[in-house]
Amino acid sequence: MTDTSTQDRVIIFDTTLRDGEQSPGATMTHDEKLEIASLLDEMGVDVIEAGFPIASEGDFAAVSEIAKNSKNSVICGLSRAKVGDIDRCWEAVKHAARPRIHTFIGTSPQHRAIPNLDMDEMADVIHQTVTHARNLCDNIQWSPMDATRTEDDYLCRVVEIAIKAGATTINIPDTVGYTAPAESAKIIRMLLERVPGADDIIFATHCHNDLGMATANALAAVDAGARQIECTINGLGERAGNTALEEVVMAMRVRNDIMPYQTGIDTTKIMNLSRMVATVSGFPVQYNKAIVGKNAFAHESGIHQDGMLKSADTFEIMRPEDVGLSETNLVMGKHSGRAALRAKLADLGYDLADNQLKDVFVRFKALADRKKEIFEDDLIALMRDTTSDA
Ligand code: KIV
Ligand code: ZN
To answer: Has keyword Transmembrane helix (predicted)?
Structure first.
């Protein structure tokens, strides 16, 4: 087992309750948010982005309550680059033992056009709002929204302004899921090389999954020097979602040989949180979703089941227990083989001689051709029919 104690620590920033909840239809109730926040805190999430306090009275109340109840995690609220937003955010997060204000403004040409600010005017707004936030709280995160479509020189300029104004974390959002791993890494490297003061702050990566690259982009940014990953449980988030917490955390754990970073996450709590978020958001997890999908630890084909029965590492790169599942699921269906059938029947208390198994296997295959999945009750009925025919 690798000694991870000397490895660089990657901060896990969970935004299920803010960016995740922004998914159309994923609204959560006050109590549901409190429960999720408490599970995230227990799981070892370093920073919980609990909401957007100016957005509604409900959001303000949830962020305040989460802040009051927080045990270990830093509690963060989001605010636009407006003094009123920042003040409201502070009113909500200030109850936390470790509060953070996160303020942002869109810096790409597409986003600069919305408030109709030129580059210099926007730079002034950034200086004023980050300074204002820093006068309230000593833990300030600043995000140039749509950073990955912002001109390099301007990105370096505004990041420098935010650092000088007191930002302690600079987050680089790939707001529209446009970047790719090599570019995601290049941006972080460029900022570390070109921006004065960059070594004194933490760079974060915040990726969306529009092209299916959110996890890869986040990990590439970490390789280039980012030390905070922003993510959500089940990858919940706007459009195609955000980087999935369970994917980046398990990737760094399973492939620690090539991604030598550690997190403070208790991975055995992953499954429970995934189910909870799926239930309260009303967004079911796709069956083949990495780590938490119903099929992530399930095997039906005969070759795979046979391999799994001999040694789990033939077809599994992580143990189900590591993510909070009790065991691998050998699904019985038409692709299953004799070894899996024998093992499943033995679990049910049927110890069969070879000639009996041969007979049952023929009946099992006939049944499996008619039925997609064979459950334990089907096998018990099959055994009953076989014994009564004998
Ligand atoms: O995707 C994004 O740009 C965001 C910011 C508000 C950080 O969620
Ligand atoms: Zn986002």
So the answer is: no
How far lies 146's CA from each of 142, 169, 202, 228, 372, in Å?
13, 17, 18, 17, 45
Tens digits of residue pLDDT in 183-240: 999 999 999 999 999 999 999 999 999 999 999 999 999 999 999 999 999 999 999 9
> Mean of the per-residue pLDDT values for the chain?
95
Which ligand is closest to the CA of 147, given by its number? Answer: 1
The answer to whether the CB of 41 is under 6 A from ligand 1 is no
Give, for 365, the enclosing helix (H) or strand (E): helix 354-370
User: Are 218 and 229 a contacting pair, CB within 8 Å?
Assistant: yes
pLDDT of residue 2: 65
Mean pLDDT of 354-378: 91
Q: Which comes out higher in pLDDT, residue 372 or 130?
A: 130
Classify strands 74-80 and 99-106 as parallel, antiparallel or unpaired: parallel
Q: What are the phi and psi torsion angles at 90 (to 5°)? A: -60, -40
C-alpha–C-alpha distance, residues 243 and 205, integer Å = 10
Question: Which residue minimizes the CA distance to atom 8 of ligand 1?
Answer: 19
79 lines ligand 1 (CB under 6 A): no
Residue reference for tokens 């920042």? 86
- Alpha carbon distance 133, 301 (integer Å): 57
- CA dist list (Å): 51 to 20, 62, 76: 10, 7, 8
What element of type H or E holds 184?
helix 181-194
User: Shortest CA distance to 102 belongs to which of 124, 74, 69, 121?
Assistant: 74
* CA-to-CA separations, 272 to 25, 39, 74, 241, 277, in angstroms, rounded: 22, 9, 22, 20, 9
Sorted by sequence, the CB contacts under 8 Å of residue 60 that are 6+ apart come out as 51, 53, 54, 88, 91, 92
- ipTM of this complex: 0.99
Distance 103 CA to ligand 2 centre (A): 13
**pLDDT value at position 389?**
66
